[in-house]
Amino acid sequence: MTQFPDPETYWHSRRNLGYLMFLSRWLQVPLYLGLIVAQAVYVVHFMVELWHLIEDFSVLDATDIMLLILGLVDVVMIANLLIMVIVGGYETFVSRINLSGHPDQPEWLDHVNANILKVKLATAIIGISSIHLLKTFIDADRMTVEVMLWQTVIHLAFVVSAVALALIDRILQPSMHSVSKRRRPRTGAEEQPDAVRAPAGADRAENGEAADARSLPA
């Protein structure tokens, strides 16, 4: 005869397994710490490039200076991308940072979720690609037509992807809003059963009866 497991033991084991899965989100913490180290490397790279610009500015022409400055802007935009991934990813997938009311809290972090984070990352990637494309066109004399063409195609692919992500987020927002509205906790007035609530015209009827009683002669 087949013996079925005890229901209480079964649900307890399922709850423990789900809790273990929930704890697995902390495995992402070393990844975000590694990105912080990568950002420190980019800071060092930025300072080295800035030193080269200061050291050689007297022998550089306008085009070379512009290319070096665009390289610095590229480093800054990649650092911004890292910040969005580190802070937004930790806030979305690991744990709340609880920065409410903090004067330095970024505006985008107040309403960040997975969809918004993807759109912002796609926008940042478009900015980085634009910098690389601008550097290519400034230095067009040293570039082949094929390289310039492929960089333009890749940049347009990034733009189309970002627009698609934004449209998907816009389509999903009404449905997500309706789900959150259904899950909204009911207030005390909403939790009061209909049988306990007074009829809408009861107060007006009582007020009318009181006025008639006052108008009767003594």
TrEMBL record:
Keyword Aminoacyl-tRNA synthetase annotated: no
Residue ranges of the TM segments: 31-53, 65-90, 148-168
Subcellular compartments: Cell membrane
GO cellular component, one term: plasma membrane
Identification of the protein by name: UPF0114 protein CLV72_109283
Membrane topology: Multi-pass membrane protein
Protein family: Belongs to the UPF0114 family.
Keywords (A to Z) from UniProt: Cell membrane, Membrane, Transmembrane, Transmembrane helix
Organism: Allonocardiopsis opalescens
Residue span of region Disordered: 179-218
Keyword Transcription: no
